[in-house]
Amino acid sequence: MRPEKNNNSEATLQLIRGTIVKKTKPYNDIDLNSWKDYDHIETGTLWTFSERAKGNGHKFDYHGNYIPQIAEQLYSRYTRPGDIVLDLFLGSGTSAIEAVHMKRRCIGVEIKPELIEKVEEKLQDFDNDNLTRLICQDSTSERACEQVHLALDELGEEKAQFLVLHPPYADIIRFSNKKKDLSNCTSTEEFLEKFKNVAQNGYDCLENGRYAALIIGDKYSKGELVPLGFYCMQKMNEVGFKTKSIIVKNITGNEIGKGRASNLWRYRALAGGFYIFKHEYVMIFEKSKK
Ligand SMILES: C[S@@+](CC[C@H](N)C(=O)[O-])C[C@H]1O[C@@H](n2cnc3c(N)ncnc32)[C@H](O)[C@@H]1O
User: Is the whole-model pTM more than 0.90?
Assistant: First the structure.
């Protein structure tokens, strides 16, 4: 399924019948000999997308889903065809849908059973090669890690090759009334403790030398900014990930309500001495080779 494994840490020259055809890294299939041909792949830390990509199975049908362009960019940089993407907060399945389109595989974990059913339904239309495995579980639990390993086993792999974490931004959107849902934590400390458990599970299920992405925004509480992004980055570091990049991405396309509500926020900002969030973070981490 996956192309031949390439464990060299340095850029590698692949030789076919004596001709140098490709110079790639072990974690993607970007041909560095033709690096000028990859204009569509972001290399800067500021991402602005004018609108959410639609079609191909992607819908804005879940408040809190990320735009497919994030998955597309990340998979292009950090995965090869056939690689397994592990998403421990699957939601409405953007990571899985984009994985299938880009011929990657995906294991997704989500706490809400109705979402798992919905994503399975969506995938039925185009996952003809059975590239996805969906698990209904609390991602903070040891059981989640065990189930991911069973799915990896079924797919013939020991570990995943890329990790996506798009947790609730604490209690900004309540996703369910389940106690284990991270959006139901009663304090930032509890949220971060649970997030760390998920990060640890992700770390344990990821191949050495591979990458992880955390998509997260900050929040305001009681007139004060709570920098969830930086707090979560610290938790990622504590479980062993090395921070590689912090990308700032505009959040156009994430908002459902506009118009009157945005005017109200403008008034509140002017009156309250703060600025309205227009960005979220895409943070990139590496699990070292050792
Ligand atoms: C921000 S959304 C992810 C959206 C997703 N990236 C998409 O594009 O649809 C966070 C998701 O995490 C789920 N969640 C919250 N706590 C969880 C937990 N302990 N284990 C697994 N999933 C959880 C929520 O139900 C919600 O669907």
Answer: yes
